[in-house]
Every structure is written in structure tokens, then in C-alpha cells.
Amino acid sequence: MACDVEAExxxxxxxxxxxxxxxxxxxxxxxxxxxxxxxxxxKTTTLSMIAGALRPTKGIVRVCGYDVWGDGWLTARxxxxxxxxxxxxxxxxxxxxxxxxxxxxRGLGLIEARRRARRLAExxxxxxxxxxxxxxxxxxMRRRLTIxxxxxxxxxxxxxxxxxxxxxxKGREELWRVIEVVLKDLTIIYSSHMAVEAEAHSDYVxxxxxxxxxxxxxxQDLVKxxxxxxxxxxxxxxxxxxxxxxxxxxxxxxxxxxxxxxxxPKEAIKxxxxxxxxxxxxxxxxxxxxxxxEEVFLSVxxxxxxV
Length: 307
Ligand SMILES: Nc1ncnc2c1ncn2[C@@H]1O[C@H](COP(=O)(O)OP(=O)(O)OP(=O)(O)O)[C@@H](O)[C@H]1O
Ligand SMILES: [Mg+2]
Prior knowledge:
Elements: E1 5-13, E2 19-28, E3 31-36, H1 43-50, E4 58-63, E5 66-67, H2 73-78, E6 80-83, H3 95-105, H4 110-123, H5 139-151, E7 157-160, H6 169-182, E8 187-192, H7 195-200, E9 204-209, E10 212-217, H8 219-226, E11 231-235, E12 251-254, E13 257-261, H9 265-278, E14 285-289, H10 293-301
Parallel strand pairs: 3-8, 3-9, 6-7, 7-8
Antiparallel strand pairs: 1-2, 1-4, 4-5, 9-10, 11-13, 11-14, 12-13
The structure holds adenosine-5'-triphosphate and magnesium ion.
Adenosine-5'-triphosphate binds at residues 14, 16, 18, 20, 37, 39-45, 193.
């Protein structure tokens, strides 16, 4: 089961006077919604306001129609599972005992909490590790335990703050397999500062910049709307001059490296290579550069997506 999460004009000023979130509105339904943005853009602040962990200065959050910071708070919070960047586990206890503890906090009886902990451990590939102390867990195992803990209350909405940070590529792959296979029916809202991850693993992306949403859409739509055209790069050696090809003007990247902005890179790559070959020039290498969410971020904010 899944249900919608709606945020209306969220605003957060910390007691220190820092304004972390400056009017954020969005909607997320079943599937994966990503809040993508650099350090300090307000992702964690927004996620914790949605999760019911941090009170907004202004604004409304509704989960399945229930107001998280109003009358519906108790029902809303039961529907949410929150996996913060660093879950406060009791490191000397086993993974199993930690999960059972989160179950008890969620109001489960002991027998039910144990049953659920075992089932989740199986689903998330933690069976072999449940008896070990959390202190001995790798980053990837700890992250899966965090997700298991967030799922103990059987939520419909799962909030994951930077789920893949600190994981190696294999750990990331396993994590996304779990999210996309085991948890596919939930409403998942996650944060990331990695454009490649946001593009590959999101149904919908909100681009965060300085506490505001700079753009939003499916990854494909964002790229289509905001990114520059795909490029074809040809490497021909420094003695070969840049050629204009069927009205496409070359941009000189360096000696013997020329770039063309094209609409259809698959077709263009052949036409461009053929033009050089027809003039008797050797082509050392030719490649397509497709713009992604990194370029979208640059285009909508004027800044690089630095972390
Ligand atoms: N408890 C706090 N007190 C005061 N300022 C805070 C607090 N937490 C965050 N901030 C500030 O609010 C802004 C947004 O921080 P936030 O943690 O929401 O960003 P983020 O997008 O999650 O960044 P990161 O990618 O580093 O996790 C930053 O300027 C940060 O310094
Ligand atoms: Mg954060």
C-alpha cells in the first residue's frame, strides 16, 4: 500500500536564525521521489519536517490526507517510516534486539515485534547478521538495518535520508535492489546529492537549491526541458582542421578535439565521422555526451552541483 504525501509552503527557521527551507511545496505518490541538491540545500530539514521529527516554522504536511503537525498527527506518524542518515542504534546490542526495540517503540507486542524483525531481516538480506552486535556491521548492513527499523511499524510512506551515502558501488547496488524490488509498493521519498543516482533511481525529482525547489519533474522531462543538447565529440589529431558538418558548427575543445551540439546523437555521430573520413582524415575516437541532471542543475541554478 502507498499513499500521497503533500507539503504546502514549508518554511523552517532554526533558533540560530538560519533559514534552511524557504517555501517548499511538493507532492509524492507511490514510487521513488528524490529530493536532489547539494550540501546545505535543505533536504534533511525538509525530510525531518515530513517525518514528524522537526516542527516547521510555517506550512503544512499531509500524509494520506492526515495533517502531520495538526489534528491528524498520531495517525500520520503511524503511516510514516523514517530512516535518518544515522539511526541511533544501541551498538552493543544485536541487530535483532535493536529491531525488536524499534517495534516495541511502535507499540507492537513482543511476539509480533520478533516476528516482524525476522521477516524484515529476511527481506532485506540481513538473516545471517541478526545475532551480531550492530557495532560489527559494515556500512551497507547498517543502512539495511536502518531501513528495517524504519519498516517495523509497517508504514505506507518511507523516508530515506541519503540512503546510499558512504556505501561502495556494490553496497549501493544491493540497496537499490532492496528499495526497488522489496519496497516497490511504498511511497518512498529519499534525498541524494548525486545526479547520476537521482536520474537512475527516481520516478520524480525535486531539485533543491538554497532552501527552495529550483525545478521538478521526471528525470527524462527535466533533461528534455532544461539540459543543453547532447554533444558529439570527435578526436582527429591536431593537424586536422574543424569541419562544419551539414550546418553544424564545431566547437574547438582543444587541438584536434571538436564538439558538435546535436538533436539526434546516434544519427549525428555517423554523419560527423563520415565527413572527416570523406576528406581523408583519420578519426581516432568519437563519442556521445548525453547531458543529465548534473547539467539540469547547472542550467536551473547557475551553479555546479558540488558536494
Ligand atoms: N539544527 C540546526 N541548527 C541550525 N542550522 C541548521 C541545523 N540543521 C541544519 N542547519 C542549516 O540549515 C541548512 C540546511 O541544512 P540541511 O541539513 O537541511 O541540508 P541538506 O540538504 O540535508 O545538506 P547535506 O547534503 O549536507 O545533508 C544549512 O545551512 C545547515 O547549516
Ligand atoms: Mg542532509
